Amino acid sequence: MIDRHPTAERLVAFSRAQLTRSQNREVVRHLLKGCARCAQALAAQAPPGIGVGHPAPLSRDYDAAFAKVREAFLLAQQEHLVEQQMAPSLLLALEEHPFDRQVLLLTNSRRFWTWPLCCLLLDRSHELGFKEPGRALDFARLGVRLSEQLSVESYGDTRVADLRARAWTTLANAQRIGSDFRASDQSFVRAERLLRKGTGDPLEKARLLLLKASLHGDRRRFPEAIKELDRALAIARRNGDDPLVAKALVKKGIVFGTSGRTDDAIDCLREGVRGIDPKSDPRLMVAAHHNLIVYLIEGGRLQEAVALLEATRPLYEEMGDRMNLIRLQWLEGKIAQNRGRLSEAETLLRSVGTALADQGLGYDAALLAFDLAAVYARQGRTEEMRSLAAEMLPSFQSREVHREALAALIVFQKAAKMERVTLGLVHELSDYLRQCRKDPGVRLRDSL
Amino acid sequence: MTYLQQPELQDSLNQLLLASRPRLERVLRHFEIPPEDAEDILQDAQLTLLYKWEQIRSPESWLVGTLKKKCIMYWRKRRSSLCDAVDTAILDLVATPVAPDQEKAELSFDLNRVLGNLSARCRSLLKLRYGLGYGPSEVAEQMGYRLSSIRKVTNRCLAALTRQLVAVGFHREPTDD
After folding, report:
1. Nearest CB neighbour to B42, from listed A65, A240, A244
2. Partner A, chain B 81-100, Cβ-Cβ below 8 Å
């Protein structure tokens, strides 16, 4: 027996899951009895996949919806612009304090709890990146702390989840740069978890994948790095984000290069460079060209490397960044060395060595010293080699060069003393040092 | 990050929203979003654009793509809310402790009739759920599923059951027996 039919309104409310629990029970009990009339009425209202196609909307006039949204949007826009304007001065106010106090302020003082300030902290962390890894880490930590204070009521829960994910991603990246790979891994896990609660914006995911690929690359997990980069590339291409495509290609090129696939690296970097707008991202342009030149040299394509270096020189100089200019000179030294202009190479490399030491970049200085050693090895200058080795060791012992790298330097010093340094040994030790930087667990070959 | 100046940002955003309106409206029509719900979906997409403005390279494509995704999510959410409502109601009905025997028998008969139109797999799963009061882990163990996949299978069966309830007279679920 079919009892009283639910009203049309109640069926509509049921199809939208808007009834109370007891009302729901009544409707479901009625439907279980097999009421075809109500089932058919409901089928026209139920969502696609349940009913028969899309329920016919009562109206197709979206004017009111657009008007209301515009009103709400203008209001939010005003508030956002005010917050955005205040963010730089809030950052200045924050920077007046030591780190612990900054954390306290961000935790307790509501005036700091704004979206633009959080973005500013995260951007600052990215900017500082390799230049000042310690400060980059601090800014990322502050970003994470602030993201946790942001109001989900004001900004929306899914949007805040996205920003929190971005904050954890930034922290993961800063930890990676500081070689704290385990912490970086854990932060990426946090970021991914938060992203699942977010808006589902694929570009957020792509940015996370790009940075996670860098972590895999640093840990010499090249297949994983390439896989993440391919995923990021697919998302960026699907969404027509050309700058992100270019960035992913450049990163992929660098991963190929680090893993020894020089030709693939060159192809990828070339493709990436074509998509970079030098005006909007000159830093990426310089980084891409720099790596391309390095791999062209490594691939023995000196003519192309020289031509590219000359074409890129204005960009290096335009950037005016001291580290970039040092890198430029290092490249010139390598090119001179590969062209057999050994005394020119020596002058350039010595000058780079001094600059790196001034900057306190012990590891880079160690790598550079091996380039210089290669010059001496080719000239058979054993005496200079011995004094270079003697200069290197005490200098690196006092700097941040880890145990395995020091071991390589000791091997080099002993070989120099015994006048048994060959070009092969120099290359081997130099490669080893490069690997050590990313993975301190790498061991010197037993035969050394 | 270089923020756009206020008037510049306002102009760019406002122009974009005006220019993209026809495309946005087409998306809403295509997905047949009820106008009363379109407001929430549109607002959500536009506010996200506002907060992420500095990161988005092609705002109009991003906005249209995001709106499409939100429309898909809208229907997915409505589907799962409806299935949850049906599931909760049946669980409540079978759990009513003081129902007279005749009512219980009628409910059991009606439920079995509806379940009879489902695939053997869904029929077994939902009988364990409603008839024997098994929880997901017990259902998984009984039917040989991994705990990680039982939720997905259960959701599919609930969707099939809901389709049966609302589409009596329109179609039968494909059965594998």
Report:
1. A65
2. 81-86, 88-90, 92-93
Closest CA to A215 of A253, A245, A188: A188
Residues from chain A contacting residue B1 (CB–CB below 8 Å): 119-120, 123
**A36 CB-contact burial (10 Å; exposed 0-12 / middle 13-18 / buried 19+):** middle
What is the pTM for the complete model shown?
0.78
Check: CB of residue A323 under 8 Å from CB of residue A330. Answer: no
Residues A269 and A291: beta-carbon distance below 8 Å: yes
Interchain pair A31, B166: CB under 8 A: yes
Q: Which tokens sit at A217?
A: 């690359």
| 3 state DSSP class of A176 | helix
For A364, how many CA atoms within 13 A lie in the half-sphere containing its CB? 17
Tokens of A397: 């012992």
- Return the structure tokens found at B19: 């220019």
CB < 8 Å to B10, chain A: 77, 81
Consecutive H or E run containing B171: none
ipTM of the complex: 0.81
B20 touches chain A (CB under 8 A): no
Task: Give all domains of chain B, ordered by start, each with its CATH number.
Answer: 6-77 (no CATH), 96-166 (1.10.10.10)
Helix A222-238 and helix A202-218: axis angle, to 10°? Answer: 160
Which residues in chain B are closer than 8 Å to A29, comparing Cβ atoms?
Answer: 89, 93, 107
- Delimit the domains of chain A by residue range: 1-52
* Shortest CA gap B144–chain A (Å): 27
pLDDT digits (tens, 9 = 90+) for B110-168: 999 899 889 999 999 999 999 888 888 999 998 999 888 899 999 999 999 998 888 66
Which residues on B lie below 8 Å from A59 (Cβ)? 35
Measured CA to CA, the distance from residue A55 to residue A53 in angstroms comes to 6
For A84, the closest of B3, B21, B82 (CB atoms) is B3
